[in-house]
Amino acid sequence: MMDPSNINNFEDQWRKALQEASEAPPPSVWEGIEARLDKEQEKVVPMWWQSPKVWYAAASIVALLLVGGGLWLSGLKTGDKPQVAVNTKPAGVSEGESREATQKAASPNESLNTERLATASEPQTSSIKPGQQQSSESKTGIAATSRGKAVGKGGSAFAETKNPEAERQEVAVAASVRKPFADKGSVNEVINTSSSPIENAQPGEIAAAKVTGNSYAAALADQSQTISAQLLASLPYSDLDVYVQKRHVFFRPQIEIEEPVKEKKPKEYYAGLGVMPASFNPDVQLKEAPMAFSAQSVSQRRATTGSSEARASYAVQTQGGVRLSKHWSVETGISYLRGNSAYEGGGYVLNAYSNLSSNVLENALAGLTTSANSPAADKAAGFNNGALYIDVAKKVSNNYQYLQLPVQAGFTLNPDKKFSYSVLGGMMANFFLVNELESASGEIIRTTASDDIYRGMNWAATTGLRLNYKLSSNWAANLTGSYQKAVSSGFKSNQSLDAHPYLYGVSWSVRYSF
Amino acid sequence: MTFNEQELVKGCKQRNRIAQKQLYDVFGGKLFAICLRYTKNRADAEDVLQDAFIKIYENIDSFRADSPLEYWLRSVVVNTALNHLRQQKYLKELDDIDVHHNGLSDREFTLGNFQMQQLMEMIRELPPGCQTIFNLYAIEGYQHNEIAQMLGISEGTSKSQYSRARTLLQQKLNKEKRFDDGSVQHKQF
C-alpha cells in the first residue's frame, strides 16, 4: 500500500508512488546478462591469444627453460659410468632409470608402471626377505606419493625390491632429483634406451623377473640395486664437461652513414667555339634619294626603292659563360661576323662626259663621306650635270664585317641531363669593321670604321634557342638557333641612309665546362 | 542494503563479475520497475533490463562520481527503453490529440490507497505514446521541451499526449472508484 501523502499534485503523487518502485527481475535476466558478458570476454581473449608476441614470448621462455634445464641437469650428472650416456645426451642417463618402468609397458604413463612394479615387488620381497614386508609397504607409499609427479618411479621401484631402509631414502632423493628428466623425456627417451645399454638391460630383466615372481629375478634385482647405489654414491660433484651457453649477440654497429653532403657546386664556367652559318641582311634604306639621283628629271624611278637581300654569311664565335644556378647562366663572347648581302637599287647614273657611273647606294655613300680619302668620295662629283640615269635593275654586293660582343642570359631546361635546352636572350654590341660595296662599274668600294660613315658600334638585340648535348662530363655540343636584330642604325645619325641589320643563324659549337 | 558505491563502481570498472552481480542485485529491482513502466509486457521489460545492464557494464568507465550512481543508472535504463520503443515503432506516429479535461482538480487527488502494481498496470495500459510521455514527464520529471527533443516530436505533441495520458489515468482511477470511499477493489496483478 502506498503511504498517504500530503502532496495532492497529480504528478507528484504518481512520482512518489512509482519512483521508488521496485520489482525483482526473474533470474533469467541475470543469466542472460552473464552469458552476454562471457561472450564479450571471449571476444577479447582470442585476440590476446592470437597475438604472435605472446607465442614468441612463450617459445622463448620454453627455450630458456630447456637450455637452462639442460645445463642444470648436466651439472647434476656425476662422472660414473652412466656418464657415457650423459656426455652424448645430458638427459639420457637419468631417463635410463625411468625407462626401466616405461620399457615394459611401452606406455608413457609411468605412474601406472611404477605401481605395477611396486605391487610386483611385494611378493618378491616377501619371498626373499619376509621380515621386511613393512619396509616394502612403506616404499610403496613412496611410489604412490611420487606418482603424482610422474617422477623416477623406476628408481623407487628398485628401492622397494631392495631391502635396506636407509637406501630407500636415498632413492627417494634421487628420484626427486631426476624429476625434471622424467617430465621431459618420458616417451622419447624410451626409444633412445640403446644409449645406455648396461643399465637398460638390467632393469628390464628385473622388471620381467618381478612380474614372474621368480626368486632368481630377485637376485638380479639385487644387482640392479648395487648399480643404483653406485649412482647415488657418485652423485656428488665431479668433473663434468661444462656446457657453456654460447651467446651470439647480433648487433649492428652504428655505421655513420655519411650524408652525401651536397657540396655546393662551385660556379661552373664554360668556354665554347663555334661556327654559325647565317643569313645576314643589312636592311639598308635610303631615306632620301642622293643628289645625283634626285636631280634626274628624266627618271622618277628614284633609286630610293632599293632593297637589300640576304646572302650566305657566317660567323665564327667564341664564347665564355658561367652557370649561376641550376637553370640560369650568363654568357658572353667574341664573334667575327661576315655578313654578305646584295643590294638592288634599280638603275645607275652615268656621266655622259666622264663616263663615270654610280649606283644609288654608292652615290649615297659618296654623299655621306667627309673624308677626302674615302674611296666613295671619288664618286661624289661629276653627276650633277649631264648625268644620265640608266634604268637597269642591277644587284650589287654589299658585304659587311663586324666584330660582335654578345651578352646573353640563358635559362636551361633539363640541366645536368644528357639533353638540355636553353632559351637565350640578351644584347649584342656590333663593332663595325668593313663594308665592301660593289660599285656600278664593278669596283669594290671598301668602307671602314675610320671613314665615319658607319657607326663604330651599334646595338642589337639577340635571342635564341640552344640544344645542348653532353658528350662527356666536360664536353658538350651545342646547336643554337639565333636571331639578331640591330636596334640602332648602322649609319651615323643625321644621314640619309639607314640600316638595321638582322640575322638568322644556326650555330654549331662545342663547349668545354670546367 | 549496505554497500560501498565507490567500491562497487570500481569493481565494475575492473570488470569484476562479483561487483557486476552486486550492482545488479542492488539496483536490478528498481531498474526493472522502470522497464516495466515503459514496456507493454514483461518479456520486453526483461529484454530492456538486460540490454541496459550490458550498456551499464560496458560504459561504466564513463560514469563520473559527481552524480549519484542511481541517477546515472536510471538514465541509462530510460534511454535503453526509449531505444527499444523506437525499434518497436511505438513512438513513430505520435501526434497532437484533442484533450478534453475531465475537470478533476489536483487538490482532491490522492493515490494513497492504490497499490504500486495497480498503478503500473494503469500506465502500461495507456497508448504507447501517452505511456512514454507520462513516464518521462510525471515520473522521471523531464520537461516537455526535453521530451520533445528526446523523442523528436514537437513540444505541443508532448503536452497533448501528456494531457491525454492524464485524462485516461484519471478515468481509470475513477473507474476504480477510488477517491473518497476507500473501498477499492484491487485487481489482481
UniProtKB/TrEMBL annotation, chain A:
Residue numbers spanned by region Disordered: 78-169
UniProt-listed InterPro entries: Beta-barrel_OMP_2, OMP/PagP_B-barrel
Alphabetically ordered keywords of this record: Membrane, Transmembrane, Transmembrane helix
Lineage, opening ranks: Bacteria, Pseudomonadati, Bacteroidota, Cytophagia, Cytophagales
Transmembrane segments: 54-73
Classification via SUPFAM superfamilies: OMPA-like
Ranges of residues in domain Outer membrane protein beta-barrel: 293-480
UniProt entry tagged with the keyword Oxidoreductase: no
Name recorded for this polypeptide: Outer membrane protein beta-barrel domain-containing protein
Keyword Transmembrane helix annotated: yes
Biased composition (Polar residues): 104-139
The organism of origin for this protein: Dyadobacter fermentans
Automatic annotation (TrEMBL), chain B:
Gene Ontology biological process terms in this record: DNA-templated transcription initiation
Keyword terms of this UniProt record: Sigma factor, Transcription, Transcription regulation
CDD domains: Sigma70_r4
Domain RNA polymerase sigma-70 region: 23-89
Highest taxon listed in the record's lineage: Bacteria
Domain RNA polymerase sigma factor 70 region 4 type: 117-168
MF terms in GO: DNA binding; sigma factor activity
Family listed: Belongs to the sigma-70 factor family. ECF subfamily.
The protein's name: RNA polymerase sigma-70 factor (ECF subfamily)
Species the sequence originates in: Dyadobacter jiangsuensis
